[in-house]
Amino acid sequence: MSTLVIAEHDNSSLKVATLNAVAAAQAMGADIDILVAGANCGGAAEQAAKIPGVGKVLVADNAVYEHQLAENVSLLIADVGAAYDNIVAPATSNCKNSMPRVAALLDVAQISEITSVESADTFKRPIYAGNVIATVQSSDAKKVITVRTTAFDAAPAEGGSATVEAVSAVHDAGISSFVGEEVAVSDRPELTSAKIVISGGRGMQNGENFKLLDGIADKLGAAIGASRAAVDAGFVPNDMQVGQTGKIVAPDLYIAVGISGAIQHLAGMKDSKVIVAINKDEDAPIFQVADYGLVADLFNALPELEAKL
Amino acid sequence: MKVLVAVKRVVDYNVKVRAKADGSNVDLNNVKMAINPFCEIAVEEAVRLKEAGTATEVIAVSVGDKSCQEQIRTALALGADRGIQVETDGPVEPLVVAKLLKGVVDKEQPQLVILGKQSIDGDNNQTGQMLGALANMPQGTFASEIAVDGDKLNVTREVDGGLQTVSLNLPAIVTTDLRLNEPRYASLPNIMKAKKKQLDVYTPQDLGVSVTTHLTQIKVEPPAERKAGIKVADVEQLVDKLKNEAKVI
Ligand SMILES: Cc1cc2nc3c(=O)[nH]c(=O)nc-3n(C[C@H](O)[C@H](O)[C@H](O)COP(=O)(O)OP(=O)(O)OC[C@H]3O[C@@H](n4cnc5c(N)ncnc54)[C@H](O)[C@@H]3O)c2cc1C
After folding, report:
1. What pLDDT is attached to residue B226?
2. Nearest CA of chain B to the CA of A42: how many Å?
3. A262 interfacial to chain B (CB closer than 8 Å)
4. Is the pLDDT of residue B165 over 80?
5. How far does the centroid of ligand 1 lie from the alpha carbon of residue A227, in Å?
6. Is the beta carbon of A262 within 6 A of some atom in ligand 1?
7. pLDDT score of B90
8. Is A232 in the pocket of ligand 1 (CB under 6 A)?
9. Set of chain B residues whose Cβ sits within 8 Å of the Cβ of A273
10. For ligand 1, what atom is nearest to the CA of residue B36?
11. What kind and span of H or E run contains B221?
C-alpha cells in the first residue's frame, strides 16, 4: 500500500497542516510520499524531505502551480496520484478546492475531513456541524481523503532524509488565472495552529473594540478569532471566522468573548482542551461547553483580564 | 446567459440533529426541512444576475426524491424561472450528484452554474468542484463576490489567508460562501406564482448516469460530550483557575 500526501505550503516553507496530514497517512499504515506542487517551491520541498518516514518528495515546480489553481493542480494530482492507493491532503482551503476535482477525475468518492482512521478503508468524520460522528467505509480501490488537521497531532518535522524527485509533467488547463489576493499580515500565530485562541462575537459591537482583545492576545501569545456574526457585521475579516463553515480550531485554551454559542460556532471550537466564556447573559448556550464561565460585561472584564495577566 | 442553480433539501440549520440510539442513522423523524442555506445564497445570486440583466434565465435543479420539489418551489418563489428535479430514491453521494448535474449541464448548456459550497447535513464540500472536473469547467469556490467581465468571470474567494481573486473562462462554476449576499424572503404572491412555474422531472437513466455507491455509513454516534464546567465569580478567580487548575497559561 502506498499513500501520496499533498503538501500545504507557501512555496518557501511547509505549513504545519502538512504534518497533520502525514500523521493521518501514518495511521493508515502505508508507505508515504509527498507531492509539493508550486512555483519556486524548493524551500517547501526541502522541509518535506526532512519529515521522518517519508520515502520520496515529488516536486512539481512550475509557474502554472504558483497560486494552487484547482483546475491545474487537480490534473497534476490525479496524474501523479494514479500510482498510489491513497491520496491524502489536509482540509485547508487550497486542498478543499482541488481534491474533489481529483476524486472526480479518478471516478472515486472523496472522504472529507476525517477525524480518525479506523482501518485501511474505514474512517470517522463529523457530519451535521459535528453533532454526529459518522463511521464510513469506502469500497473504492483508490481513496481520496482530506484530513481535519485538529484531529491528528502533527508528525515530527525533522529527522528524515527523503529523496527529492522532480515531476516534469506540466498540467495547464488554461481555463482560469490568478488575479490577486488580500492576505492578512499578522505577527500573531496562525489561528488553526495557535495554542491559545481568543475570539470575539457580536457582543464586541464594532471592529474598533476588537482592540480590547489585542493586549490579551499579546500577553498570551494567542491568535484572534471571531464568530460569523462579527465577520458578517464587518468588524473583522473573513479569515478570522471560527465554525462549521469557517476555521476549525482546537487549541489548549479557547476564550469566547461576547459569543452566544450557536451550533455552527461550537462546531469550530468545541474540541479545544479548555474553553472559557465571557458573556453577560448567564443563559447563553456557550456556557454549556465552557469549563470556566464568567458572567460579566466584556467591556469591564477584558481590561481587567489584561491587567491581571 | 443561462444560469443553473443547484439546491438541496436539508435539515433546517436551527435543528440540533442527534444520532438514533441504535447508531444506525441520524434521527430525522419530524424535523423541519429547508433549503440548504448556501443554496439559498446561490439562488439569490442568480436572481440578482437576472435582475441586473446579465442572466436571461435561471433554472433551479435538485437531486432527490419527490420531497425536494418543495425546495425547488422555494427557489422558484425567490425568482428562478423554472425547475428540474432529478429523481433518486433518497440521498446519493456527491460524486453521483455531480454526474447527474453534469447531465443537466449537457442538456441545458448554462454559462454559469452556482452551487452552495457545502450542505449543512453531510458537510462534504465536494459537489461543485466535482462538477467542475467532470464538465471541464473552471471554478470559483467559497465565493464572496462575483462579477461578469465579457466572456470571463471574476470571483473573489474566501481562503485561509484572506481573500483571493481568480478570473475564470465562461462557462464556469461558482460555489457560494456566506457573505456573497443576503437572500431575500419570498413574498406571498411570488410563492403563489411559483406553484405554476414549469418543473420537469428526469431520472438518472434519462441523463445516462448510473447511481453508484462508494461509501457505506457503518454507524453514527454522538460526539464526545464535554463535561459541564463551573462559573467563576470574577476575573481574578478566572486567572487563578487558568494558571493553577487548568495550567494553560
Ligand atoms: C449555514 C450557516 C453557517 C454558519 N457558520 C457559522 C460559523 O462558521 N461560525 C459562526 O460563528 N457562526 C456561523 N453561523 C452563524 C451562527 O448561527 C450564529 O448566528 C453566530 O455564531 C452568532 O454569532 P455571535 O455569537 O457572535 O452573535 P450572537 O448570537 O448575537 O451573540 C452575541 C452574544 O454576545 C453577548 N453580549 C452582548 N453584549 C455583551 C457584553 N457587553 N458583554 C458580554 N457579552 C455580551 C450576548 O449575550 C450574546 O450571547 C452559521 C449560520 C448558518 C446558517
Report:
1. 85
2. 21
3. no
4. yes
5. 6
6. yes
7. 83
8. no
9. 248
10. 1
11. strand B215-221
A18 touching B (Cβ < 8 Å): no
The pTM for the full model equals: 0.96
A200 alpha carbon – ligand 1 mean position (Å): 9
Q: Residues of A with CB below 8 A from B228's CB?
A: 288
Which residues contact residue A54 at a Cβ distance below 8 angstroms, ignoring those fewer than 6 apart? A5, A22, A32, A33, A34, A48, A160, A162
**Rounded CA separation A272/A254 (Å):** 6
Note the pLDDT tens digit of each residue in A142-169.
999 999 999 999 999 999 999 999 999 9
- Least confident interval from A112-116, A142-146, A148-152, A182-186: A182-186
Q: Are A244 and B117 in contact (CB under 8 A)?
A: no
Q: What are the residues whose beta carbons fall under 8 Å from the beta carbon of B142, sequence distance 6 or more?
A: A93, A96, A97, B117, B157, B158, B159, B175, B177
Beta strands in chain A, from DSSP E residues, in sequence order? 2-6, 31-38, 54-61, 86-90, 110-114, 116-119, 122-127, 132-138, 143-147, 163-166, 176-183, 196-200, 223-226, 253-257, 274-279, 292-295
Q: What residue owns the CA closest to ligand 1's atom 36?
A: A203
pLDDT over threshold 90, residue B111: yes
CB contact (8 A) between residue B166 and residue A96 = no
Q: Tell me whether 0.90 is exceeded by the ipTM.
A: yes
Q: Are B39 and B60 in contact (CB under 8 A)?
A: no
Q: Which residue has the cell 435543479?
A: B61
Amino acid in the structure at residue A305: L
Give the distance, in angstroms, between the CA of residue A165 and the centroid of all CA atoms in the same chain: 27
**Of the candidate ranges A53-67, B112-126, B223-237, the one whose mean pLDDT is the lowest:** B223-237
Q: Convert the pLDDT of each residue in B143-156 to its tens digit.
A: 999 999 999 999 99
Nearest to A263 by CA among B49, B218, B17: B17
Concatenating the DSSP letter of every residue in A80-137 gives: HHTT-SEEEEE-SHHHHHHHHHHHHHTT--EEEEE-EEEETTEEEEEEGGGTEEEEEE
Nearest alpha carbon to residue A59 among A49, A51, A74: A49
Per-residue pLDDT at B228 exceeds 90? no
Tell me if A227 CB under 6 Å of ligand 1. yes
How sure is the predictor about A185, in pLDDT bands with cuts at 50, 70 and 90?
A: confident
Q: In the predicted model, what is the mean pLDDT of chain A?
A: 97
Disruptive mutation site among A247, A263, A292 for chain B (greatest number of B CBs within 10 Å)? A292
- Give A115's strand partners: none
